Structure prediction request, 153 residues.
Amino acid sequence: MFEEGQQVPAFNMPTDTLGDVSDKSLKGSPYVIYFYPKDDTPGCTKEAIGFSRLMAEFTALGVKIIGVSKDPISKHEKFRAKHDLSVILASDEEGVACDAFGVWVEKNMYGRKYMGIERATFLVDGSGSVCKIWRKVRLKGHVDAVLEAANTL
Prediction:
């Protein structure tokens, strides 16, 4: 598990719109990478719509937004089309990035334990340094808080 101020872990994932996205391809510009459990579920949809709603503000700051789940690209394409999303959606089917970012965790729902993606967001500056980390994200006000932090870059 890494902390704020450290370099972002190496990653390389396919996206539904750009081909591959990696820590190397993003170097030189700031970005937000957020991890979410599953396409087209209530919380994940609300989060993706929230980031899409503020995309113009993030773009004005030069900040890209990348949402990551283990869903395949084909599911991301349907998710994007259904909700008119403007964020980049990356697929981490093998869980390599989830492991590197420390978001593949044991979860507990109604007494049943299972492994899954912890909702988490990382703000990364142009040099690849992680400026801010939000773990166990609660959605209310989250996207606005990320935008506020991005304004300080």
Notes: The two ends are 23 Å apart (CA to CA). Residues 12-150 form a domain with the Glutaredoxin fold (CATH 3.40.30.10). The mean pLDDT is 96. Residues 42-53 form the longest helix (12 residues).
